[in-house]
Write a structure and sequence with these properties.
Distance between the termini: 20 Å
GO molecular function: S-methyl-5-thioadenosine phosphorylase activity
Radius of gyration: 18 Å
Enzyme class: transferase
Number of strands: 11
Bound molecules: the ligand CSC[C@H]1O[C@H](OP(=O)(O)O)[C@H](O)[C@@H]1O, adenine
Subunit structure: Homohexamer. Dimer of a homotrimer.
Protein name: S-methyl-5'-thioadenosine phosphorylase
Number of helices: 7
Shape: globular
Strand content: 15-25%
Pathway: Amino-acid biosynthesis; L-methionine biosynthesis via salvage pathway; S-methyl-5-thio-alpha-D-ribose 1-phosphate from S-methyl-5'-thioadenosine (phosphorylase route): step 1/1
Length: 290
């Protein structure tokens, strides 16, 4: 059931995509359970797009409770080849200000409680993850932001996103540790998604919307949810514009992506003798290699 080549996962404060027409709410079932909410399929300027609210449309799921595997598998089932995550993040650098946009190119994993692979149960795969986002897709997102000349928004191409477990925000000692590592931004959601998207051979990139200076900055209050939401609401119109421009550019010129063949050299198990239940469960990922 190929329905949409472009998928959007909306994070905190981004629960819908305003410009979609001919909307269908799809309750997708996957071998990994149900996604966070219905997937909204809609049309933007003749391009079919699949939108999913990561925490649910009423924001009912903690980062640690997110059904990451179901979310990414649902996108795969709908035919998604390019996936953009719009996410709220804290800044770990002075020159990355609230309301700025970052398109990160690296991640540091500080999660403790996430399942970040489709594999196991008799089939072993190790994807390459040195470059965890698709550079070509990230360029399209960056170019889309740059083309809009948004007032008061500085674009940062590249940067390292620390993915922490949460739900509590960091301590000052942790925040300063991440700063000493040279990290740029911090959030709680994008790393498991990036890994699973890579396993699913979907190109993935993040549009990170800066909402706060976390808790390290001596001249700014420590991050609170009110701060995150207030800044995201200020940024929401811009974020919608960026997503629309990105979809427009992707529809016109879908870039090649190494992610689209990520499993080619990643599967160690001989699939002809692998357990048939696991092959059945993962058939969407494995079909082209069987
Ligand atoms: C509401 S502040 C913390 C929350 O916001 C970010 O969510 P998302 O990445 O889905 O935009 C952060 O990762 C936390 O989950
Ligand atoms: N400071 C922060 N830490 C973790 N996740 C966030 N999301 C938005 N701001 C954040």
């Amino acid at each position: 059931m190929a329905e949409a080549r472009i998928g959007i996962i909306g994070g905190s404060g981004l629960y819908k995509m305003d410009a979609l027409k001919d909307i269908e709410e799809v309750q997708v079932q996957t071998p990994f359970g149900s996604p966070s909410d219905v997937v909204i399929l809609g049309t933007f300027e003749e391009t079919r797009v699949a939108f999913l609210a990561r925490h649910g449309r009423n924001h009912t799921l903690l980062p640690s409770e997110l059904p990451f595997r179901a979310n990414i598998y649902a996108m795969k089932q709908l035919g998604v080849e390019y996936l953009i995550s719009a996410s709220a993040v804290g800044s770990l650098k002075e020159d990355v200000k609230p309301l700025d946009m970052v398109v990160p190119d690296q991640f540091i994993d500080r999660t403790k409680n996430r399942v970040s692979t489709f594999f196991g149960e008799g089939i072993v795969a190790h994807i390459a993850f040195g470059d965890p986002v698709c550079g070509n897709l990230a360029s399209v997102v960056g170019d889309a932001i740059a083309s809009l000349n948004l007032p008061d928004v500085t674009l940062h191409r590249g940067g390292t996103y620390v993915c922490m477990e949460g739900p509590a925000f960091s301590t000052k000692a942790e925040s300063n540790l991440y700063r000493s590592w040279g990290a740029t931004i911090i959030g709680m959601t994008n790393l498991p998604e990036a890994k699973l998207a890579r396993e699913a051979e979907i190109a993935y990139a993040t549009l990170a919307l800066v909402t706060d200076y976390d808790c390290w900055h001596p001249e700014h209050d420590s991050v609170t949810v009110d701060m995150v939401i207030a800044n995201l609401q200020r940024n929401a119109i811009n974020a919608q514009k960026v997503i629309q421009e990105t979809v427009r550019r992707l529809a016109k010129n879908p870039p090649p992506s190494d992610a689209h063949s990520a499993l080619k050299h990643a599967i160690l198990t001989r699939l002809d003798v692998a357990p048939s239940e696991t092959k059945e469960k993962l058939k969407l990922l494995l079909n082209k290699y069987l």
